[in-house]
Amino acid sequence: MRKLLIEGGHKLTGKISISGFKNAAVAIIPASILAGDKCVIENLPNIRDVHVLGEILEELGATVAFDGEKKVMEVDTELVLSCHATYEMAKKLRASYYLLGAALGRFKKAQVAFPGGCDIGTRPIDQHIKGFEALGAKVVIEHGIIHAEAEELVGAEIYLDVVSVGATINIMLAACMAKGTTIIDNAAKEPHVVDVANFLNSMGADIRGAGTDVIKIHGVEKMHGCTYSVIPDQIEAGTFMIMAAATGGDVIIDNIIPKHLDPITAKLREMGMEIEENGESLRVVSNSKLKACNIKTLVYPGFPTDLQQPMSALLTVANGTSIVAETIYEGRFKHVDELKRMGAKIKVEGRVAVIEGTSRLSGATVSATDLRAGAALVVAGLMAEGVTEVENVQYIDRGYDSIENKLLSLGAKIKRV
Ligand SMILES: CC(=O)N[C@H]1[C@@H](OP(=O)(O)OP(=O)(O)OC[C@H]2O[C@@H](n3ccc(=O)[nH]c3=O)[C@H](O)[C@@H]2O)O[C@H](CO)[C@@H](O)[C@@H]1O
Ligand SMILES: C=C(OP(=O)(O)O)C(=O)O
């Protein structure tokens, strides 16, 4: 079993470049099915989820070449003739559900097993199914497989009962080649929704309004291949901002879209950090003792659920008491018991964690239970006294490209064993 060994207490200084956005990439790769042609996807992060999706597309008949050094995937989906994604394939990640929307859009038929992925709470797909049905598909769930099929897909007006990134993207995928116009009302506005819409438009789709809560998709007859570059990862960037704060450091986070980081920038400033924006980078500088603050995870542009766990690790050493409310996923406090092993003072009541700041954490052996829990433990290890061993690194590798190399380049003492 792979572990990360971290010797805490070293200031991070210098500059790092942020990789492409995992949560956009995991939708864009399956979306390439709609092209039935060759797509060149640039600025992909070299992470496990990207490799797994490449393998799934290959199993479905695509030709896939991913160069992890250059971060480019060439994927030709011409020879994908149908989509039956088995449990073995789909269980590997949550984003396998995007195969449903993409294949339904192209073949009017898809069979995909229920998705897997990190255990952070229930991840319903009722809004995805509601959208497919509104477009004219019949959706049946049998033996763990979701079967979606339509004679033809016809544009419809779909109001989402909850703002869902996954449902918004999946409905966009299914609707690109539907007859007429589809309107998604109460759509998610996250940067990855916009990025996927831009990718689809580069493949010939006609999608307008992504980034607002009303998205219109005018169905087109045919789509085609394209070359596209994925946006920078706001969650990786936010994690490194938190790590800079955790170590009293001075770090330039480069190759980002600062606007996407507004919720985290605002909170770190509230805690006493100095943050300077400069074009495509942010400089995060520590000047004083961190102050406690309250966090509530919300849909964009609120504070992202994916940064709640790293942020709560940082709050364990802030001056005062912080309240963290997780409104998106009920199972996203699994890192708390691990942080307690390191001396953190946290009480969880349902979806709320009360964190009483302590002067310092102490290194311990801890175990990642999911991707961002792993990132939270790395944050804790960087600021703890002594050595922290983080087990179950495979979760971290799902979503962070070269995390230890990036940290080493900033002066951290970290190694993989
Ligand atoms: C709003 C939000 O922060 N979404 C995040 C969520 O997206 P992901 O796509 O997983 O989640 P959704 O945005 O779909 O879910 C938002 C909320 O809606 C509920 N829901 C969702 C779909 C559905 O059919 N029915 C339903 O009730 C979920 O339980 C959740 O409470 O995790 C992704 C990976 O970590 C992030 O990239 C997204 O930014
Ligand atoms: C939980 C996450 O990803 P996924 O939904 O792909 O499991 C995440 O990115 O924090």
From TrEMBL:
Active site: C118
Catalytic activity, EC: 2.5.1.7
Stretches that traverse the bilayer: none
Keywords: Cell cycle, Cell division, Cell shape, Cell wall biogenesis/degradation, Cytoplasm, Peptidoglycan synthesis, Pyruvate, Transferase
Domain Enolpyruvate transferase as annotated: residue spans: 7-407
InterPro entries: Enolpyruvate_Tfrase_dom (IPR001986), Enolpyruvate_Tfrase_sf (IPR036968), MurA_subfamily (IPR050068), RNA3'P_cycl/enolpyr_Trfase_a/b (IPR013792), UDP_GlcNAc_COvinyl_MurA (IPR005750)
Binding site for UDP-N-acetyl-alpha-D-glucosamine: R94, R123, P124, I125, D126, Q127, D306, I328
Enzyme class per UniProt: transferase
Residues reported in the UniProt entry to bind phosphoenolpyruvate: K22, N23
One GO MF term attached to the UniProt entry: UDP-N-acetylglucosamine 1-carboxyvinyltransferase activity
GO cellular component entries: cytoplasm
Pathway(s): Cell wall biogenesis; peptidoglycan biosynthesis
Reaction(s) catalysed (UniProt annotation): phosphoenolpyruvate + UDP-N-acetyl-alpha-D-glucosamine = UDP-N-acetyl-3-O-(1-carboxyvinyl)-alpha-D-glucosamine + phosphate
Main location: cytoplasm
Family to which this protein belongs: Belongs to the EPSP synthase family. MurA subfamily.
Function: Cell wall formation. Adds enolpyruvyl to UDP-N-acetylglucosamine.
NCBIfam families in alphabetical order: murA, PRK09369.1, PRK12830.1
PANTHER family: UDP-N-ACETYLGLUCOSAMINE 1-CARBOXYVINYLTRANSFERASE (PTHR43783), UDP-N-ACETYLGLUCOSAMINE 1-CARBOXYVINYLTRANSFERASE 2 (PTHR43783:SF2)
Identification of the protein by name: UDP-N-acetylglucosamine 1-carboxyvinyltransferase
Organism of origin: Geosporobacter ferrireducens
